[in-house]
Amino acid sequence: MSLAELRREYSLGELRREALEPDPIAQFKKWFDQATGARASGRVRQLLIRLYKSLLLISGAEPMDLNAMILATADKLGRPSARVVLLKGVDERGFIFYTNFQSRKGQELAENPHAALVFYWAGQERQATVAGEVRKLPQAESEAYFRSRPRGSRLAAWASHQGEVLADRAALEARWKEYDARYSGQEVPMPPYWGGYVLAPARIEFWQGRPNRLHDRFRYSRQPGETWLIERLDP
Ligand SMILES: Cc1cc2nc3c(=O)[nH]c(=O)nc-3n(C[C@H](O)[C@H](O)[C@H](O)COP(=O)(O)O)c2cc1C
Predict the structure, then answer these.
(1) What is the pLDDT, as a whole number, of residue 47?
(2) 68 lines ligand 1 (CB under 6 A)
(3) How many whole angstroms separate alpha carbon 138 and alpha carbon 212?
(4) Are strands 89-91 and 80-86 parallel, antiparallel or unpaired?
């Protein structure tokens, strides 16, 4: 089938202004819980989700990485780059992720803190997009998270110079083993070039697919005084 012919209708749900939380982080958490199946509003919706999940289980395609998000950054000239990272927390400060500060994204964020996120939850026919400024998390918080990671991942943070050209896989594995030996019987500390960022949202948009491409879109824009303006957008 040609790409141009790949299309489908979006008809699972709707998004109404009355159903929106006044705070976009609360709205985001609601959608996230629904995507993970932790919370589903309405009996019909719960039934649909259960049906959808059992179909996915039968086909062996259970959705994973529901906290995966596209992170877009740009250098100081505005040239963009994007990649997937995992959302590791969301609170009143914003959206938290962890990475190597020396990676391309880390370098771009150092010169230009403006960034954007995209979440796509195909199971719900939903998208959430976020834009705002990024800053580093307090080191103690990054360290607490680092300590919670499996030892192998902690060693990988030392072994991988994320984004640098690598001669071959053996070189990476050899480095990992070196660190494994170095920290044998000890806690693996957090590398100084590794840690968390929090993206403080200035704008969050919620998109729900609807039939005939007449989708529902609501944008929350941060106003002075920590309030949010909510506007419906044309799809
Ligand atoms: C599902 C998935 C989750 C990922 N999670 C992270 C993550 O949390 N942090 C991270 O640094 N890279 C993560 N990556 C790898 C990034 O996509 C990317 O390859 C890496 O961070 C280097 O990006 P950069 O060179 O643009 O900075 C993930 C990739 C995938 C596919």
Answers:
(1) 73
(2) yes
(3) 46
(4) unpaired
Instruction: Quick: pLDDT tens for 168-187.
Output: 999 999 999 999 999 999 99
User: 45 catalytic, yes or no?
Assistant: no
Residue in 118, 117, 135 with CA at minimum distance from that of residue 197: 135
Give the global pTM: 0.91
* Cα-to-chain-centroid distance, residue 189: 25
Q: What is the dihedral sign for C-alpha 104, 107, 112, 114?
A: positive
pLDDT digits (tens, 9 = 90+) for 75-94: 999 999 999 999 999 999 99
Q: Radius of gyration over alpha carbons of the chain, in Å? A: 20
Whose CA is closest to 67, among 121, 30, 104? 121
Residue 61 CA to ligand 1 center (angstroms) comes to 22
Q: Residue 107 has which token pair? A: 């370098």
From the candidates 16, 39, 50, 213, give the one annotated as an active-site residue: 213
- In short, whether 194's Cβ falls inside 6 Å of ligand 1 is no
Q: Is the pLDDT of residue 212 over 90?
A: yes
Alpha helices in the chain (DSSP H): 24-36, 43-59, 104-111, 139-148, 151-159, 169-182
How far are the Cα atoms of 41, 79, 186 from residue 198, in angstroms, in the given order? 29, 21, 29
Q: Coil, strand, or helix at residue 213?
A: helix
